[in-house]
Amino acid sequence: MRRxxxxxxxxxxxxxxxxxxxxxxTATIGTGAARERAAQIARxxxxxxxxxxxxxxxxxxxxxxEWLPSNIRESDRxxxxxxxxxxxxxxxxADPTAEVVWPYGQRLTLPMLSPQQVLDRLRTGRPxxxxxxxxxxxxxxxxxxxxxxxxxxxxxxxxxxxxxTMAGYEEPFTLPAIAPQQQPATEPVRAWAGQSVTYxxxxxxxxxxxxxxxxxxxxxxxxxxxxxTDQVVVLMAELKKSQEMCTAVLVSEPVSVRLTxxxxxxxxxxxxxxxxxxxx
Length: 280
Known about the structure:
With 280 residues, the protein is mainly β. Helix content is 12%, strand content 33%. Strands 1, 10, 11 and 13 form a 4-stranded mixed sheet that branches. Strands 2-5-6-7 form a 4-stranded mixed sheet. Strands 8-9-12 form a 3-stranded antiparallel sheet, with no helix packed on it.
């Protein structure tokens, strides 16, 4: 049966080899097109305007960066989601600036957010209370400054955070004390959106990169590959396209890629955008 919806997903073209699909779908026989695209991205990156922008900013990989208590109650999770937090103490002031530090000596100074600004940002854009009404607000009883590690487009970085103590919890609710910078605008090349891997994190030894692949609900992610140079790593995925009738749902599937050497300060680039920016 034919699929009811055409999704902008394709299979990875691997250099020098072919992939044969099992029943119910097709996989691409290698022509090297994906590798040629990756090689072009890697070749054009050094010295480009995009390289200068992405190599000098603070761009976390995850849309929301926050650390919540492991034992958070569901009612408090809903209150937090609605931004319902009431300070019971005077909130401290912040320094004018704070530093983001990467492990290879790179540093970036950014404006520091005060605890009040962090709470205000938390409430901005949050959904209104559900149909059953609002949960009781959580009571903020303490604030301390700390630091956490965040996955960024330039690798793992240490960032300043505010640790908010709420009544009834020993573990703090922790949020960054700096705001991400606006990502440079990038228009993805749709032809490569299906092969692209959205980079999320790297292992402690720097050898395993994890990410996500967007695929159709009946498609299957068969494998991943990395095109590596001294300066960048371009991630690619191989998909098996299903011929079954499926719903038009885009699934985000976790994947991992083993590198030939540690990532270190190299940037991970997206096959569709040619930059660290995700394609979807």
